[in-house]
Amino acid sequence: MPDERLDGYAEALLAVAAAEGRSTLLEDELFRIGEALRHNEELLAALSDSRFPIERRQSVVEDLLGDKASAVTTALVSMVVGTGHGGHLPEIVDAMVARGAVKRDRVLAKVRSAIELTDDQKARLAQAIKSSTGTDVEIRVIIDESVLGGLVTEIGDDVIDGSVRHRQSQLRENFG
Amino acid sequence: MTATIRRLAGAFGLIGALTVLSAVPASAVGETPGTCIFEKVLEAENDYGSVHALEDPANKDALAAFEQELDTCEEAPSLIIPEIDEIIWGGGAFLILFGFMWWKGFPAVQGAMQARSEKIAADLDAAESAKTQATTVLADHEAQLAGAKAEAAQIVEDARAQADLVAAEIAARANEEMAQMRARAAADIESARSQAVSDLRGVVADIAVGAAERVIKSNLDIDTQRALVDAYIDEVAASNA
Question: How far apart are CA B205 and CA B142, in angstroms?
Fold first, then answer.
């Protein structure tokens, strides 16, 4: 998918979220949906499979999201799938959250955690990262049970891995 | 050469003497006792019609004369001493023949003998030359044979030296290959040992880490998870201080 088109869709999603006045919630829901699709290749392939009618693919999206996301979020995802770009939804969402963070003069920080973080934890983590990088960051949490415990923070190409999984890997390497 | 001529002259003289000695008396030339008797018998038969007619007593004298003639016929002529005229004619013929031979035969024979002598001498010279040449060729052949033998000996020696060199190279190569094989075997053994140790460590690590995971998971309740998150945040914050 060309960058111009991808940026266009990202900008459109941001505009709708802003118009709805729930940018934070909608961006967060879209970010979680994008991460879920990124790790579910079969579903991602089905959403972009032209052998299925667009209406069928959109009904799958609506069935899957249902009450797990807001109606606006479901409508936005269904819109992207309806345009035939469902297979690029993770990239579109990445571009959207990155552009949204930039608009707020912040840097996107993807945080993987086995549990949901509280607002206080997010704020303290953002403050700690700001102290490290000198830049305000916008925390986006990805629930990933494979980290077992702790957090893994990705800011651009930098990774701060404080997960139990990482400790186990170090332990395994020390044994080796 | 002179002796040869002398021998030829002697031979001709001997021939002449034998010719003279073999001459018969003139009276006996072409007449033998048998012939004489036969002629006498023919004469008697012509005179009396038959020889038996002489037995007639009337021919008693004729018979006596006939017997006298037969006795005369029976007297053999000399087989050794010829008649004088025969000697004269024979000697003259001999002298003529001898002179002719001396005039024509001797020079021809002498020339032939001279040519033969020269030919023999030339042949002897040629034979000598051939002998010399053969000797030279033989010497050359012997020299070549000796050279060939020396060359063959050198070739054998070179081949032996080459064989020794090849054998040494093969032995050196075999030793080198053996050393390499030993090195490879040692490296393989070391690699296998390292791999076995690594595998063992991996197994031990898996067991230990697996046990640790089980312990951690069993203790990772929500409070512990939050505590781990807080600890992470504090650690990030502390690293910035």
Answer: 91
Which chain B residue shows the shortest CA-CA distance from A168? B209
Which ipTM did the prediction report? Answer: 0.80
Distance (Å, whole) CA B17 – CA B162: 91
Specify the CATH number of the domain A3-99: 1.10.520
Residue B175 CA to residue B197 CA, distance in Å, equals: 32
Give a yes or no: residue B171 inside a domain: no
- Asked if residue B34 is part of any domain, the answer here is yes
- Tell me, what's the pLDDT at B27? 45
Strands A158-161 and A107-113: unpaired
Domain ranges of chain A: 3-99, 106-175
Residue B38 lies in domain: 2-139
Q: Is residue B77 part of a domain?
A: yes
The pLDDT tens digits of the residues spanning B211-233 come to 877 887 777 888 888 999 999 99
d(CA A170, CA B10): 147
Is the residue at B45 inside a domain?
A: yes
Question: Does A175 contact B232 at a Cβ distance shorter than 8 Å?
Answer: no
Nearest to A176 among B198, B217, B231 (CB): B198
Q: How many angstroms separate the Cα of B140 from the Cα of each of B126, B132, B133, B150, B154?
A: 20, 12, 10, 15, 20
By C-alpha distance, the chain B residue nearest A170 is B209
Counting the structural domains of chain B, the total is: 1
What residue type is assigned to position B86 of the chain?
E
Beta carbons of A146 and A165 less than 8 angstroms apart? yes
Q: Which two tokens stand for residue B19?
A: 């010719």
